[in-house]
Design goal:
The complex is a heterodimer of chains A (about 350) and B (about 250). Chain A is about 75% helix and about 0% strand. Chain A is mainly α and about 350 residues long. Chain A has a single domain, classed as ABC transporter involved in vitamin B12 uptake, BtuC, CATH 1.10.3470. A two-stranded antiparallel ribbon of chain A has the order 1-2. In chain A, a hairpin with a 2-residue loop joins strand 1 and strand 2. In chain A, helix 3 runs parallel beside helix 15, helix 5 packs across helix 14 and helix 6 packs across helix 13. By secondary structure, chain B is an alpha/beta fold. Chain B has a six-stranded mixed beta sheet, sandwiched between helices. A four-stranded antiparallel beta sheet of chain B has the order 2-1-4-5, covered by helices on one side. In chain B, helix 6 runs parallel beside helix 7. Classes of the chains: A mainly alpha (about 350), B alpha/beta (about 250). At the A-B interface, helix 1, helix 11 and helix 12 of A face helix 2, helix 7, helix 8 and helix 9 of B.
């Protein structure tokens, strides 16, 4: 019986001793942060600043190199037009990547939806609005299938979407008969499909309705991700799925909804893409998967999930657009555009890793 | 006296392994019940059954004398049983306020909240601040700080504050001091006493004998899938407890 009182008496003394040493250790940690540390802290708190800075620096640099040709209102608005589709793909991709997933099938889902829209309205003569609805539904279903495979069978998203990419692409070929639907036929039979290709001119700049829709998608997603419980749960699931589950989030339902919403966004992208390209081609946007991932990564969203912002993806897409436009106006070969883009991706991920190291 | 939370003859098997063999547990009002046991004794399965993470094969759980069954931790939480998990179940990239309300967010009133599902972020921040300062944890200045920028002890504080804010009946803490330094452990032990003084009974699972002996009113010793005995920390030494736990000594018959 006397053991316990002895134990308890010894205990506090023991802890006091350790406590004082522990304190030294803490004062050491509280040393003044140096400039580099401050920058790291700032970027950690404001992850969107990285792509913003890169965008402004690259616009300024190309303005200097390529001069007025690059800096014209027309060219800048052209860049926005050119990144519209990749931007929409990247918006959907961001949702998936925030949940620590990846979607290799984004472009295939989009092209499949556009094939449905074109096929039903132009070749089968059904009402265009009905064809668009079928296209939207196909996007939602494809996204749902991805989400279902990921949650139900616990398969890695990379593998699931690598598989569905091929499946959806095969369906694209099957339904389209590997034939394009010509722009002239669409214009004659289903002009509504070209709606997002229309544009308005402001001071020499030209903005398509599709670009406005892209911006609108980003604004809505920003509000949803930051101001609603669903949005916070997207981050929580990507950050630590087990912790989210224990916090009472139904993570499987959450993931399923994310993949489905991404599918709907991609189907909207399909409609925009018909306006942008003019025709429906089964082989278009073949590199859209990787382009969207590139935009998301350059936009500062972490491939490990839970970190990043939707706006970053827009900046990422714009940076890619600025680089290819600037480099081609500067007269560089396409191969150097790819070279620069590759370097940019590696730099972006390197920077992300550095910023994340703050927690250690 | 009626226990607040009671487990009666709980059984749980994983294939051929018997994790719980007619295990019992009682938690009374105004107490901290320490739960100790050797690795593999089944104490974590017992706790998981109480917090809804594991569904027992047979036996019953009574809350205030009423039979309850939990299909998930969410169902247990709805009855007022909060759990602070060993891994804390926090999302490092989210803010303190986000984490405290994760999975039970407060929506804005009116159209914005009801139809657009907008969150009442300022309201939640205010509540989070109140809860943290009630527990004397407002050394954390910025409620919108990301959890990953906090120290281990501060994170534990956030997890405990979250449990204390929503736990109305029971708080279960699984190894709350395992990952902490000495000073931070001390702070968490103070928190346990603080929460108990607010009238919420606590189940404390820990491997750390001095910590268990310091704050527990009774200690439940688990061995081979069932309760071996319950001892009073004032009448038994830590070495006795270890001896019972490992089977080196026969438990006191009471």
């Amino acid at each position: 019986m006397s053991d316990i009182s002895k134990d308890l008496q010894d205990q506090p003394k023991f802890q006091d001793e350790i406590g004082s040493k522990d304190q030294d250790h803490h004062t050491f940690e509280l040393e003044k942060p140096n400039t580099l540390k401050k920058i790291q802290n700032f970027l950690h708190g404001n992850p969107t600043m990285v792509p913003v800075i890169i965008l402004f620096v690259s616009v300024a640099a190309f303005g200097l190199i390529a001069g007025g040709k690059f800096f014209s209102a027309f060219n800048l608005s052209l860049i926005i037009q050119q990144v519209t589709i990749v931007g929409i793909l990247a918006a959907a991709q961001t949702l998936i990547i925030l949940t620590a997933g990846i979607d290799l099938s984004v472009a295939a889902i989009m092209v499949l939806a556009s094939v449905f829209m074109g096929k039903l309205s132009v070749q089968m003569g059904l009402p265009t609005s009905f064809a668009i609805m079928v296209g939207m539904a196909s996007g939602a279903i494809c996204g749902y299938i991805n989400g279902w495979l990921v949650t139900k069978f616990r398969l890695p998203p990379f593998i699931v979407t690598l598989g569905t990419w091929n499946v959806f692409f095969a369906l694209v070929i099957f339904f389209s008969g590997s034939q394009s639907i010509r722009a002239r036929d669409i214009e004659a039979n289903a002009p509504l499909l070209h709606f997002f290709g229309k544009s308005v001119k402001v001071y020499g700049a030209q903005f398509t309705y599709g670009s406005f829709l892209m911006i609108l998608i980003f604004i809505i997603l920003w509000f949803v991700l930051n101001k609603t419980a669903w949005g916070r749960h997207v981050y929580a699931v990507g950050d630590d799925k087990d912790a989210a589950e224990l916090s009472g989030i139904r993570t499987d339902r959450m993931l399923l909804s994310v993949y489905t919403v991404a599918g709907v966004i991609l189907a909207l992208g399909a409609w925009v893409s018909i306006g942008r390209v003019g025709s429906v081609s089964p082989t278009s946007f073949y590199e859209g998967n990787l382009d969207s991932i590139t935009a998301v990564v350059i936009g500062g969203t972490s491939l490990f999930g839970g970190r990043g912002s939707i706006v970053g993806a827009l900046f990422g897409a714009l940076i890619v657009g600025v680089f290819s436009s600037g480099l081609s106006i500067a007269g560089l070969d396409v191969l150097w555009q790819r070279f620069a883009l590759g370097c940019l991706i590696i730099m972006a991920v390197g920077l992300d890793q550095w910023i994340r190291r703050i927690s250690n | 006296m009626q226990p607040v939370l009671q487990a009666k003859a709980i059984n749980k098997r994983y294939g051929k392994v018997v994790a719980l063999d007619n295990a019992d547990l009682e938690l009374y009002k105004d107490e901290v019940l320490g739960v100790i046991g050797d690795n593999g004794a089944g104490k974590s399965t017992l706790i998981k059954a109480l917090c809804g993470a594991v569904q027992p094969d047979s036996g019953e759980i009574l809350l205030d004398g009423n039979k309850v069954t939990f299909g998930s931790p969410i169902e247990a939480r709805k009855t007022g049983i909060e759990t602070v998990y060993q891994n804390l179940a926090l999302s490092p990239a989210l803010t303190i306020a986000d984490n405290m309300f994760l999975g039970r967010e407060i929506h804005k009133k009116g159209f914005m909240g009801k139809f657009l599902r907008f969150l009442d972020q300022s309201g939640m921040q205010e509540l989070a601040r109140t809860k943290l300062s009630e527990l004397g944890l407002l050394t954390i200045q910025n409620i919108n700080q990301q959890v990953e920028t906090l120290s281990g002890g501060q994170r534990q504080g956030v997890a405990v504050a979250r449990a204390a804010a929503f736990g109305t009946k029971v708080i279960i803490m699984d190894e709350p001091t395992a990952a902490l330094g000495v000073k931070e452990s001390r702070r968490v032990l103070e928190l346990i006493v603080e929460v108990k003084s607010r009238g919420i009974p606590i189940i404390l699972i820990s491997h750390n004998m001095p910590h268990v002996f310091e704050v527990s009113d009774r200690i439940h010793i688990h061995r081979l899938g069932k309760r071996l005995c319950v001892i009073n920390p004032k009448d038994n030494s830590m070495s006795d407890a270890v001896a019972y736990m490992t089977g080196a000594k026969e438990p006191p018959t009471s």
